[in-house]
Give the backbone structure.
Amino acid sequence: MTAEVVGFLVTDVGGAYLDLTAGGGGFLRALAATLDKKARLYAVDKDPAAVEWVERTLAGFLQFKKIIRISFSEIDAAVEQFEDKVFDGILLDLGLSSRQVDDAARGFSFQSDGPLDMRFDPDSSTTAADLINTLNEKELGNILKTFGEERQAHRLAGAIVRERQKTMILTTRQLAEIVLKVIKPPHQKKSLARAFQALRIAVNRELDELAKVLPAATGYLKPGGRLVVLSYHSLEDRIVKNYFQQAARGCICPPAFPQCVCGQKPVLKILTRKPVYPGESEIEENARARSARLRAAEKI
Ligand SMILES: C[S@@+](CC[C@H](N)C(=O)[O-])C[C@H]1O[C@@H](n2cnc3c(N)ncnc32)[C@H](O)[C@@H]1O
């Protein structure tokens, strides 16, 4: 959705832009190709491999100024280190990059065998194996149900707990084999994806991070600046949609109040009443794009 992201994000080709999920640097490169020489591009990622890659591959672009290794919820600390302090556009492309999925050693994929890790930041304390081997059955079931929307979450959690009494579950293959034993065809692939998604969200506290960054990022937009968010599942999209609606409404008084007492004013104008989806040809080229949805809003 490169054209859509660039189209919604860029209002001034000589402006300042911040990509809070630099990943493989794809959108940074697309922005550099669109912006003029005066523009400034900044980036954030919590994965040191992404930071190192972006530093190396974006070095030749005049507009690229700096990337900081930090969680995007800590945007204040990142902006402190940038020359620009307000931005014409801020981008969030949520979830994980294809570079992370393709690296079996990161443990994100059920299609290759690797350690059950799944941390975006390898210095953070909790891995997927820690959760799988230490949470009780109810807690595990809740993660699989809430973050994976898996109907058989509690059966699956029971099977995980029985299996780990025999041997610790330390690899993606071990976890995948448990899922394949519990879930019968034709739903196995979907359940594998759901279980891995659920654990990844829990390990990286992705929904908390998202809920924190949206209002914080809005605070760093110039009037007329744009916030563009690409999400990949309904849990993320719901948080983005609800935040945009609340920020566009301003008032947070209960509907029963005859008049506003909170005094909060709208801070965003929603640019996408409905989410924007990728076209057929993009889905054919890139399977991950299938679940992508874009929402954009403008600072008032
Ligand atoms: C979908 S990828 C971004 C791909 C990128 N837009 C590109 O064009 O290559 C998401 C990236 O966000 C990073 N990320 C996820 N959650 C983060 C967080 N809370 N703070 C900082 N980076 C995060 C991941 O490490 C990953 O590199």
In short: The longest strand covers residues 221-231. The chain is about 45% helix and 15% strand.
